[in-house]
């Protein structure tokens, strides 16, 4: 009688609030659509109520302790985690312990997580995000023809190094941290460009626009930074790459391309390691 399992149990007796099933499990009237009789067997899903008791519902979820599935995120609770809809009456918590360290990349409402069910140390039912191995049976080999094509994917793992995604065609994708302006959320659906198809059938994806478009966008961001800082910044085409990335989240090569564009347009000039807005 473990919470998170789908079981077939016998109805022992009726009570005012519903039914008592074998194992002394309560099935409330609100959790079943039809009348039951003692001796009848019914398929139910077991979960834990607010009092910590194991109770039943006749509304069977599409995820259990033995299966994985994509669950919609319905609520984010800072300091606690996020709640997901698994297709039954009870929304299930994904603990903050199983989410990224920084809440800014936690899933938002309408994001999706690939989860199964489990329990915490106190025996409470939780939704557990899938480990990498849970996707092993899903992967398809990406064809070389998709190179430079636009593709969408769902983020299933985030890290400082980058984000791992699974695409609609079940291709395994990776977004390196240099190929994004901001870190995508866990569970977010992102759209990018295939920049490499690897020998193992996985792909590398960039969320950045192509160089020509990116140079315009980066130049606009540099101008905005200058305008917000009195028309001067301690950066030039000789600046340290890590300092550039820390401020503008772009590579030094991209920074130099954008800076070159602005200098050609005579919007900025460099002096003594600094860049100034021209008047």
UniProtKB/TrEMBL annotation:
InterPro entries associated with the record: CvfB_fam, CvfB_S1_2nd, CvfB_S1_3rd, CvfB_S1_st, CvfB_WH, NA-bd_OB-fold, S1_domain, WH-like_DNA-bd_sf
Record-annotated S1 motif domain positions: 148-208
Alphabetical list of SUPFAM superfamilies matching this protein: Nucleic acid-binding proteins (SSF50249)
Name of a matching Pfam family: WHD_CvfB
Gene3D superfamilies: Nucleic acid-binding proteins, Winged helix-like DNA-binding domain superfamily/Winged helix DNA-binding domain
Protein family according to the UniProt entry: Belongs to the CvfB family.
Official protein name in the record: S1-like domain-containing RNA-binding protein
Species whose genome carries this gene: Virgibacillus siamensis
């Amino acid at each position: 009688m473990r919470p998170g399992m789908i079981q077939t149990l016998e109805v022992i007796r009726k009570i005012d609030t519903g039914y008592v099933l074998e194992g002394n499990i309560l099935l409330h009237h609100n959790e079943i659509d039809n009348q039951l009789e003692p001796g009848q067997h019914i398929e139910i899903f077991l979960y834990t109520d607010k009092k910590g008791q194991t109770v039943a519902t006749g509304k069977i979820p599409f995820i259990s302790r033995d299966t994985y599935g994509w669950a919609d995120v319905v609520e984010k609770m800072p300091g606690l985690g996020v709640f997901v809809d698994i297709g039954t009456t009870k929304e299930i918590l994904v603990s903050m312990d199983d989410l990224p360290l920084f809440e800014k990349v936690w899933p938002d409402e309408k994001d999706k997580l690939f989860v199964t069910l489990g329990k915490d140390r106190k025996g409470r039912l939780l939704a557990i995000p899938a480990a990498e191995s849970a996707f092993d049976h899903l992967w398809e080999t990406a064809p070389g023809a998709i190179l430079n094509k636009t593709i969408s994917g769902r983020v299933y793992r985030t890290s400082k190094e980058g984000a791992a995604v699974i695409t609609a065609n079940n291709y395994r994708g990776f977004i390196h941290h240099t190929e994004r302006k901001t870190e995508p959320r866990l569970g977010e659906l992102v759209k990018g460009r295939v920049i490499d198809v690897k020998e193992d059938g996985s792909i590398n994806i960039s969320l950045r626009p192509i160089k020509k478009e990116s140079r315009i966008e980066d130049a606009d961001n540099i101008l905005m930074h200058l305008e917000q800082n009195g028309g001067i910044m301690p950066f030039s085409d000789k600046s340290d790459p890590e300092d550039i990335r820390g401020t503008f989240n772009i590579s030094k090569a991209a920074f130099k391309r954008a800076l070159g564009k602005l200098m050609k347009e005579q919007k900025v000039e460099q002096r003594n390691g600094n860049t100034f807005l021209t008047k």
